[in-house]
Amino acid sequence: MENKIKNYIENFFTKLEINIKFFNIENKEKNLYFVKIESDDSSLLIWTHWKTIESLQRILSMCINNISENKIKLKLEINNYSKTSEDRLFLKVDHSIISLKNNGWEYELWNLSPYERKKVHNYVIKNYDNIWSKSRWSWENRKIFLLLKNKKEQHRTKSKLTIDINWDSI
After folding, report:
1. Which of 6, 38, 82, 146 has its CA 20 to 30 A from that of 12?
2. Using 50, 70 and 90 to split pLDDT, how confident is the model at 166?
3. 31 and 57 together in one domain
C-alpha cells in the first residue's frame, strides 16, 4: 500500500509542477500514513494558516481512498512547518509572559484557533506555576488572557483543568 500511496502522491505533485526535493512516507498506525515533504515551493503548499496543507491532506486522502481497499488517512508535513509553527507559537507566548511580568497583571493574546488556544493553555499549565491562562469570548471573538496568580490562586488552581470549547459546534 505504501508504494501505491507514494506513487500517487509523486504523480499528484508532478502534475501540479511542484518541485519535491525530499519525500518520505511512514505507516505509523493502522491506515494512518505520515507523509514528509521538502520543497522549494512550500509557500504554495502551506499558504496562510495551513489552509492549503489541510486541503491537500483532504484531497489526497479522498483520492487514495478511491484506489484503496481500506479507509486511509494522511498527515502531511511540509518542510517541518507544523513543528516550527508550534515553536513560534510558544516563543510568542514566552515573550508575552515576560511582558506580563514586567507590565501588569493581565495580558491579552492575539486571536488564535481553537487548536492553538488549547496548546497555549496546556503549555502555560505545564511550564508556568505563577501564570494563569483564561479564555474569554463574545460569541465568535474568542481570546486568551494571561494573568499573574497571587499566592492563594497558585495553591487553589494548581490542579485545575482549563477546557477550551469551540462554540461554533454547539
Report:
1. 82
2. low
3. yes
Q: What is the per-residue pLDDT across 15-51, written as a single tens digit (0 to 9) for each? A: 988 888 888 888 878 888 888 888 888 777 777 656 6
117: domain CATH number?
3.30.1370.50
Which CATH number covers residue 30?
A: 3.30.300.20
3-state secondary structure the chain: CHHHHHHHHHHHHHHCCCCEEEEEEEEEECCEEEEEEEECCHHHHHCHHHHHHHHHHHHHHHHHHHHCCCCCEEEEEECCHHHHHHHHHHHHHHHHHHHHHHHCCEEECCCCCHHHHHHHHHHHHHHCCCEEEEEEEECCEEEEEEEECCHHHHHHCCCCCCCCCCHHHC
